Every structure is written in structure tokens, then in C-alpha cells.
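Notes on consecutive records. When two proteins share a document, each keeps its own sequence and its own C-alpha cell line. Never mix them. Below: protein one.
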Amino acid sequence: MRKINSTDSSSDVRFDVASSRRNFFVQGGLYAMGALTAATLVQPAIALAKTVSTSTADDIAILNAALALEFQAIAAYQLGAESNLLQKPVLDLALKFQGHHKAHADALAITIESLGGVAAATKTFTQYAFPLDQLKAQADVINFAAGLEKGAASTYLHSLSSFHNKHLIRGAGSILGDETMHWAILQNALGLDPVPVAFIV
């Protein structure tokens, strides 16, 4: 039985991941197919997050879309870790970020269940349709991961004003901050401006 961080009222449920700690892309040679593929993978979740929720069921749908992105990120970092393309410092960073996504996924699943929903399940690498033919060097892996992080950040951003249950905003905002930091650090690892714009969209 998972420990659920909530108040006595089911309408006052919130997830808090502060203690546990991705639509635009910059132009350039590195931001080609990998980033475009990442953008395609996250677009459905972003679109759903932009839809204003009018019920707990709608909130659960948004949370499950976010959870699906977290599982996708966990799998992507695992793929990167097993690719033998990442040098030691980058591999350590990838595994650290993967740990963050696991914490996000746990918090989201707990919240979905506490709202009476059924948490989404993870998928296989094949089901995620990762661009395996495009990941041939460390920069390709980092670029792809950065695209996923940027898409996740955008999803959480749009969810903030969409939730029916406003108590969900704090948790989504906390994860938004973490996803944005991941994206900035990966940008920097690619030798790109880690903060290229003033606003996330």
C-alpha cells in the first residue's frame, strides 16, 4: 500500500515532490531529427495539458498523460545508459535524471490512485518508438533526452492552469521546475545556451 500525501478530503488531494527533490527548440545541426522526434512523442501530452479540466476525471487524464511522459523519460535514459554511447560523467547525469523521473512517476501514480483513478502503465522500448537509428553518438542521445525534457516541462506548464483541482498545481509546478533544470543542463552539455529564451511555451 502506497503512502498517500493528502488531506482528509478527497477533493483536497495534492502531490508534493519537493522533497524528492519538455514547443520550441533552438535551431542548429544538433537539433535535427532527434529533437523533432522527441517533439512528436510529447505532443499528445502537451495537447491534453492545454485542455481545461472540468472534473476529477479530467484531472486524472492530465496526470496520466504526465505519468506516461515520466515513464517515457525513464525508458529513454535507460536506453541511453545501455547504449554504450555515454561517457562516464554524462552517464552519471543520465542515471541521476532517471532517478528524478522515477520519483515523479511515483508521486503521480500515488496522486492518480488517491483520486480514484488507475495509473497508466509503462511501455516497452518498441512501443515508445524511440529513434534508435538516429542515436549513434553521445550528442544524439543527449539531444533526444533534451527534447523529451523540454516537452515534459511544456506539458507541466500548461497543466498548471488546466487542473480542476487547484491543489494539484503545487506538485505539477515542482516537477516543472525539475524538468526545466534537466533541459538546461542537457543544453549546456551539448555546448548550447542553457537558457536560450525567457519563457517556456
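Protein two starts on the next line and is unrelated to protein one.
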Amino acid sequence: MSRNGILIIEDDKDIRELMVYNLTKDGFAVTGVESGEDGLDAVSRDLPSLVLLDLMLPGIDGFEVCRQLKAGEGSRHVPIVIVSAKGEETDVVAGLELGADDYITKPFSPRVLTARVRAVLRRRARQTPKEEDVLTILDLEIHPGRREVVYDGKRIELTNTEFKVLHLLARRPGWVFTRYQIVDRVHGEHYPVTERSVDVQIVGLRKKLGKAGVFVETVRGVGYRFRDDD
């Protein structure tokens, strides 16, 4: 497996072979393994560009594989897309909070799978702006140093929390943040704010942004993201 290859960790042979076939046809170098242990070994030998990970695996399950990869010094930056029949809201949120970049539920369309893989790789290829960088997205400008937001030439007054939420999302367009992740990154661990209070903050933020409020998208049952127009 080359550094630009994709590693599939999937115990169902038919599904694994289907994924290998379609991704190979679309020009990717692909390797498939059937267990979490084999997947971890493969990553330790040769870092892939992306991992497609099933959750219900024999032995070490997918959640633990994701946890170990994100804790590893060399593997923590490898993007992970979970592909699982476990499609409940709690499963999706749990996977994303462990650090997965995307979550696809089975059954899936091979074309959708390829498109989502390409989208994750594009996002990872971009350099995430530094905290102090001014962000310009179409007619929206976000100035971290001045805590200032300007849309279509007009300044928008935001609270400190609203600004932090907007800046967090805008620095990674297309990246889904769960409500817990937003609370944790904006306020810090153990801050006494409920996840549902994030919904209230988002409503207020969108209202103040006016037409630019469409940039902040809801991912039903999971959280929020900044619109990716790429």
C-alpha cells in the first residue's frame, strides 16, 4: 500500500471487495483487511492517505480502532471515514467525537462512497488557516484579531461566544462538529453549558448573519458545519 493509498477495514468479504473494486476503478490504490488488528498492523507498516472503517469488526471493534489511530503519533492525522450499518444518532456522534472525518451508513451507493472519499481528501489537502488568519469566504470576512465580522461591507455585531462558534466552523469548511465538540472547543472542558444551548447560539448567530446565515448548516442529529463550496 502506498502513502497515497486507501485502507479498508471491513470484515464482510463481499462489501470489502465491492469497495476495493469501485475505488480502484476510480484511480485509487486500495488495500483491504478483515479485522481491526490487521488494520492497525497495516497502518503501522505503511501510513495510508485515508482509512475506511467498519464498526462491527471481530476482535477489536471499529470504535477502538479509531481511538487508537487518533491517539497514535504517526496516525493521528490520517483521515478516517466510518462505513457502518450502525446508523443511529448515538453511533454517528460517537464516531465523530472520536475523530472520524465522515460517517457513511450501509447500504451505500458506490458513487456516493467515492464522492465522500474525494471530499475528505480535498479538505485534508487544504492547509487549515492559523487562528489569527483573516478568513474571507465570498462576501463574508472574519477578523480574529479584531473579533470582527463583516458581510457585504457591513459590520455584524456578535457576542464573544457567537464569534468563537463562527470562527471554529469557518476555519474548516465541510467539517462536521458535534454539539459537544463545539461546547468543548469554544468554552473548554467541564464548562456548564448544555449541548442544546449550542442550538440557541446557532439560531442567534444565523439571525445576526442575515443572508450569510446559510453558511452555517445543520447536520441533523449530529451538529453543525460551515458550508463547503469547493
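For the record: DSSP finds eight helices and twelve strands in the chain.
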